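Training component of the fellowship. As part of building independent skills, the fellow (R.M.) carried out the full modelling exercise for a liganded target. The chosen ligand was pyridoxal-5'-phosphate. The inputs are recorded below so that the supervisory panel can assess the work.
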Amino acid sequence: MNPGLPGIGEAIREVRGRVEEAARRAGRSAEDVRLCAVTKNVSPEAIEEAFREGQRLFGENRVQEARRKIPSGPVGAEWHMIGHLQTNKVRDAVRLFACIQSLDSLHLAEAIQKRLEFEGKDRTLPVLVEVNCSGEETKYGIRPDELPPLLESMGGLDRLEIRGLMTVGPLSVDPDDSRRAFALLRELRDEARRSTGLPLQELSMGMSADFEIAVEEGSTMVRIGSAIFGGRM
Ligand SMILES: *Cc1c(COP(=O)(O)O)cnc(C)c1O
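Fellow's submitted model of the complex:
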């Protein structure tokens, strides 16, 4: 008998319920919003428990931790890289992750392209471009005005499937600040869609403190850590 870790299933259901409410308020379908469970500093047991509760998509922000967790983690889970990626970790990242959400430079994009070419002639990888929409200096991600030239330069990198954009909301507790940042990401996506012709369907935005606002502003993927696994991450 496995007593399970109390709270995780319940927390996942609660978050999903709140996503549904926010989607309804915005006239959207909750099915268009995926829940990515963020596992930084989370034990293997807690990850297993989330998987047993039906959670399939997980996010890690460090390659080092991913190297330990993913190969021994639940079979059938989908893992996304959500933290800053250094080019010297690209080799591992390309093997471990189904998507790199934190693409933040042409240099990194070229390193990923090169690695994928090395891995095999049909090897491709979905990526999201991370944009710093709050202007906070401590944040990773490119500036909004850097997006069009980056996408243009990435046009020749045929192994990268650019699926959309990602952002980390502002630290501010003022919901208007969060809303502005998320609306900006959506507008940047809409503009980039027109200029590139790519679908750019994915908007990864919203964390434990601000995911309902993100869903109202068009998020297609919320990345939730502490509201599922507890603690301050
Ligand atoms: C930690 C982290 C999250 C989850 O944050 P919570 O506030 O715990 O929900 C989401 N995205 C990124 C990039 C993170 O580093």
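The panel noted the following from the submitted structure. The mean pLDDT is 95. The longest strand covers residues 160-166.
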